[in-house]
Structure formats: structure tokens, C-alpha cells
């Protein structure tokens, strides 16, 4: 089975999973979107209004800023895979609680296992805490850290959430600087995506 097929199967499993928390008003499972061969996984918090409408992560204002930040380091959005630690929109965009994050974690872990990305960019404190518990984002943002993931090593680059960057110009400047760090990390590794397999683009909506 290809990675794309495995992701589609995992999405179907999540759609049928009656044990996942139900969020009042949420209309769609926002499983994730992007390139099944991506070597970068971007992990946000939870879908917002527009993500729920379209079924695609990071398509609202925060998503536009994320797109700009990716463009600033010349990484096409189609080269990455993007998802969140919670796959349904919490009511009124409230923060997800620990039980909710835990309930979705088998699917997030499944996505990581399938993609086997070299780099995970965490956007905001909720996805950061999955890999770097007990740290402050203000201390660790933009500092790549190698973490053990099962039998593999993954570089985690913690970043501020684009929605926080939209609210505060200093945070935005820091986030954009952290993308330059991400570029350095990518360039210090092998080529981002092998052109031969880059063709396998996917959109899971
Ligand atoms: N904020 C997130 O954390 N994720 C999205 O998909 C959109 C906004």
C-alpha cells in the first residue's frame, strides 16, 4: 500500500470512530492535507471556522500567514503535509482539553508513522507539548530538537502559532525568523522531496 492509500484508510477509520469526541457545531473531520511523500509535517492545534467549512487545515487567516511564511523560505505548500492535534473544530474555537487531544492522538501518531517525516514543525503550544512536554514556547521556539519517535529520529522545530502571530507583531517577526531556521534545517539534510516521487500529491478532504 502506498503512503497515500494508508492515509486514506486511516482517515476512513477516524470518520467511523464513534469514540472520538463530538464537538457541537463541527461539521467535518479535518484529517489533514498535503503531500503523502512530504518530509515536513506541520502540526497545528485544531480546525477553525473555515477549516470546518472546507475540510482542509489552515485555510483561514492563520493559514494565509502560514502560506506566506512557507513562501518566504520557498517551500511550496504542496511539499508539506499539514494537520492538527485535534481533528474536529471545538465550539467557538476554544482550546482543546487534554482528554480531547489524547482521544485524537492515535490518529496523529498514525499520520506520523505513515509519513515518517524528517521534520515536524509544531505550531503553537498544544502540538509542541506532544514532543516537548513542560517547556515554554517563548524559550524553545525556533530551536530544533531531535526527538526519538519509536525507532526513528525526527527533528522537531517548535514555532509560535500563526494565529498568535496575527495578534502580535513581535510574535509574527519571531515566527518568520523561525521559518528561516526551518530552511537551514532543511538545507542541512538531503533534498526536501525527491522530485521523482513529488508527483504523488494528495488532498484529503
Ligand atoms: N488553527 C489551527 O491550529 N489549525 C487550523 O487548521 C487552523 C487554525
From TrEMBL:
Domain Uracil-DNA glycosylase-like, chain residue ranges per copy: 31-180
Tell me a GO biological process for this protein: DNA repair
Q: Which GO terms describe its molecular function?
A: 4 iron, 4 sulfur cluster binding; metal ion binding; uracil DNA N-glycosylase activity
**This protein's record includes keyword Metal-binding:** yes
Q: Which domain of life is it from?
A: Bacteria
**Record key words, sorted:** 4Fe-4S, DNA damage, DNA repair, Hydrolase, Iron, Iron-sulfur, Metal-binding
UniProt-listed InterPro entries: UDG_Type-4/5 (IPR051536), Ura-DNA_glyco_family4 (IPR005273), Uracil-DNA_glycosylase-like (IPR005122), Uracil-DNA_glycosylase-like_sf (IPR036895)
Task: Report the catalytic activity.
Answer: Hydrolyzes single-stranded DNA or mismatched double-stranded DNA and polynucleotides, releasing free uracil
Q: Which residues form the signal peptide?
A: none
Against PANTHER family, the record matches this protein to: TYPE-4 URACIL-DNA GLYCOSYLASE, TYPE-5 URACIL-DNA GLYCOSYLASE
Q: What family does the entry list?
A: Belongs to the uracil-DNA glycosylase (UDG) superfamily. Type 4 (UDGa) family.
Q: What is this protein called?
A: Type-4 uracil-DNA glycosylase
Q: Which organism is it from?
A: Candidatus Woesebacteria bacterium RIFCSPLOWO2_01_FULL_44_14
